[in-house]
Design goal:
Layout lengths: L5 H39 L5 H11 L5 H17 L1 H31 L3 H21 L1 H15 L10
C-alpha cells in the first residue's frame, strides 16, 4: 500500500474488523438463545436428547432461514418415532421459537450489531446463493455487512441540510 493511503487503508480494515466482530457476536447471541429455548422447550415436552437437539438447533441457526429447517429435522424425526402427536408438538415448538427469533430477536440483534435491513439480508442471500451456492447463502450476511461498511466508509457524507 502506498504510504499516502496507509492511514485510510488501516481505518478501512478496522471498520471491516469491527463490523465482522459485531456480526459474529450478534450471531452467537442469536444462536445461543435459539439453542437454549429449544433445549428448555424440548425438555418440557419430555423429549429424549433435548440438550443435543438444542445444540443442533442453535448451531444450525448460523445459516439464516435454511438453518431453521436443518435444526428441526433431527428433533422431528425423533418425535415422529415416539408418536405423531409428539411430532406435532415439537413442530409447534420449533415454529414458535423460529417465529420469535425471526421476527423479534434477530432483527433487533442484527440492527444493533451491523445496521443491516432484513430485506437487504434476504436479497443478498438470494444473489450470493445463486452465484456461490450453499457457501454463498451461508456467508451472504457477513459479506453484505462488510460491503455496506466499506461503502459507508469510502463515500463522502451528505451535508446536514441534505440528510433525511
Amino acid at each position: 500500500m502506498p504510504t499516502r493511503y496507509r492511514g485510510s487503508a488501516r481505518e478501512l480494515i478496522r471498520t471491516t474488523a469491527h463490523v465482522l466482530s459485531a456480526w459474529v457476536a450478534g450471531q452467537m447471541l442469536d444462536m445461543t438463545v435459539v439453542g437454549v429455548l429449544t433445549w428448555v422447550g424440548l425438555s418440557l415436552l419430555g423429549m429424549p436428547l433435548a440438550f443435543p437437539l438444542g445444540l443442533v438447533a442453535g448451531m444450525a441457526n448460523f445459516i439464516p432461514y435454511l438453518g431453521t429447517f436443518i435444526g428441526a429435522v433431527p428433533a422431528l424425526l425423533i418425535a415422529l418415532s415416539i408418536s405423531p402427536r409428539e411430532a406435532l408438538m415439537v413442530a409447534g415448538l420449533y415454529a414458535f421459537i423460529q417465529a420469535f427469533e425471526g421476527y423479534v430477536m434477530s432483527p433487533f440483534i442484527q440492527k444493533r450489531a451491523v445496521s443491516m435491513p432484513p430485506a437487504l439480508t434476504i436479497l443478498s442471500q438470494t444473489i450470493f446463493g445463486a452465484f456461490l451456492g450453499m457457501w454463498g447463502f451461508a456467508f451472504a450476511s457477513p459479506i453484505t455487512a462488510v460491503l455496506l461498511a466499506v461503502i459507508d466508509h469510502l463515500s463522502t457524507p451528505l451535508p446536514e441540510d441534505e440528510q433525511v
